Amino acid sequence: MSTNHYKRVKAFMENAGQPTPTKVTTPDDDTRVLRARLILEEALETVHALGISVQLNKEDVTIDACEFSSNKPVDVEGVADGCADISVVTIGTLIAFGIDDEKLLEEVDQANLRKFGPGGYAREDGKWMKPPDWTPPDIAGVLKSQS
Q: By the 8 A CB rule, do 3 and 105 touch?
């Protein structure tokens, strides 16, 4: 079963002539590069709308290789647009891989809620950290059920 959002993104991709497989698969290099570029482009647009500049200070792009600074005005409309666009491109990536979203998102949401068990805590930067007995989402199980 798919969410309504998934169905709308799939219709967009079909209209754009992009592959929308019905079984879990690994897309070709060109499709994966497109998906990566779209995700990064929308993520960076959203970060900039948040009023944050990101500077890359290492050759390999990782979160730890970037420096973040809050030095620009916030664009709330840009944040809303960026978050919606990120959702479109990430759901589109699931579609390109033939992965249905509903059961996957439910599994990940439940795993995230388990982070609030005994021993979970807020890191200094505000990220919530999982407790010692936390169990990760069963992504492999979800994918297997879709094969």
A: yes
Q: In a 3-state reduction of DSSP, which class is residue 30?
A: helix
pLDDT 10s digits, 101-127: 999 999 999 999 999 999 999 999 999
The angle at the Cα of 16, spanning 99 to 39, to the nearest 5 degrees, equals 55
Q: Give the residue from 142, 137, 146, 141 showing the smallest Cα distance to 24.
A: 146
Q: pTM of the entire structure?
A: 0.89
The Cα–Cα gap between 16 and 38 comes to 14
Q: Could you tell me which residues come within 8 angstroms of residue 101 by beta carbon, excluding any fewer than 6 positions away?
A: 2, 3, 5, 6, 91, 94
pLDDT in tens, 40-90: 999 999 999 999 988 877 677 788 888 888 989 999 999 999 999 999 999
CA-to-CA dists, residue 64 to 7, 49, 59, 142, angstroms: 35, 21, 11, 30
Burial (CB < 10 A; 0-12, 13-18, 19+), residue 92, is: buried
Q: Are 52 and 8 in contact (CB under 8 A)?
A: no
Which amino acid, one-letter code, is at 146?
Answer: Q
CA pair distance 55, 126, nearest whole angstrom: 21
